[in-house]
Structures are given as C-alpha cells and as structure tokens.
Amino acid sequence: MISIENLAFTYPDGSRALDGLTLEIRKGTAAGIVGANGAGKSTLVNHLNGYLLPQEGLVRIDGIGVEKRNREAIHRIVGLLFQNPDDQLFTARVYDDLLFGPRNLDMDMNSATAESERLLREFGLWELRDKPPSHLSHGQKRFAALATVLVMKPRVLVMDEPTSDLDPRNRRKLIDLVRNFQATTVTVSHDLDFIWETCNEVFIMNAGKIVDGGPARELLSNRDLLERNGLELPLRLQGV
Length: 240
Known about the structure:
Blueprint: E1 2-10, E2 16-25, E3 30-34, H1 41-45, E4 56-61, E5 64-65, H2 71-77, E6 78-81, H3 94-104, H4 109-122, H5 138-150, E7 156-160, H6 168-180, E8 184-188, H7 192-198, E9 201-206, E10 209-215, H8 216-220, H9 223-228, H10 235-238
Parallel strand pairs: 3-8, 3-9, 6-7, 7-8
Antiparallel strand pairs: 1-2, 1-4, 4-5, 9-10
C-alpha cells in the first residue's frame, strides 16, 4: 500500500529531515512510526498525502506516485490527521469543515452528509455542529479533525501525534476506533503505549532514516534498541 524508496528532503534552512529513507507498508497493516524529536517523523508523514513532495526518491501510495499531478488522486486515498487540529479546522462551523473535503473532491454529497452526521453523533459533537471550531475544547477539536478525515472514507489513515491533547477517556475511545478501522493505518506518536495497543508493526526512525522495523510488541519490548534511538520502554513495561 505504501512504498518509499530513498526519500530525501531538506528544508530551506538547510536542515536535512529525511536522508535516503526506504519503507514498505503492506495493505491492511497498522503501522507505528516512532523516534526521538527531530528524527524526521512529521516530515515523513507529510509526504504520504502530498502535503510535501519528494525532492529525491520516490513515494507510491497503492501504486500511484506522490507528485504534483497526482495530488487529487492521493487525497482520495490518504487521510492525514495533523498534529495540531487547528491546522485542519478552518471554516465558520464544525459541520462545514466535515463537508469541505467531499465538496472539493466532487464526492456524492448525499452520502457525505449522512456520513458527516453519523460521525458527529458518534464523536459526541452533534450538538456542537453549528459552533465555530475555536469554541471547542482541545479533545473536541481532535475528534472534529478526525471526522473531517474519516468522512472521506480513506483507504489509508495517517495520524501525527493523535493522543497529544486527549484525556484518558477520549484516548481510550480513539484506541477503540483505530483498532476497528478497516484499512491501513500509519501512526506517528511519542505515546508508545498507544502504539502498543493499536499497531501490529513498528518502524524506528533516527536521523531521517528507518533504522529498524518489525512486530510492534517485539520492538517496543527491546530496551536497548529503544534507548539507542532516544526512546524509552512503554510505561506498561516500566511498571509505572
């Protein structure tokens, strides 16, 4: 489903965020990408839906190259949940945010409207549908942003630090949702317990490259491997 070969990306200030990264994620995999701050994780996920385009190397999603001419096709396949919900919610009403994507990609609006209403009710946001997103709590914004992604019915769901602003109850709700999502998922998170509960495969990043990958619980139990890459064991394995 996701194929990346020798991907490199350097920001205008000269910071090389990705350095010949190669990665394969099979269809239906729940993949976690972990690494210390500055490893290049967010830069990587921003290449998965064409928000950033490769400077060197290739990125393919379900066989389609991530390049300018294919952006619309990629947007129909990949839904990206940004780290900051405020980057995703920008209309005057929560309800309008959910319908923005379907309108712009000429989706069937009857189906999109029905799905929007279902998601708003499921996420406890129905009564807030006419509110400006700025009036929502951080957790409500997170689920509203997620709803704007899921209404597009993506075949790949990419999430960047999805638990960063969630209380324990909403974190558990998100875990259950991700577990039941019937498609490929890619999650970038410092919350290794969330990765433990939702991913079956993990890739470790360091200095813009994938340095290891394999079964999630096997890698997340490897203290030496994690510490070499600026990470710690999940809290559940620390006896906390």
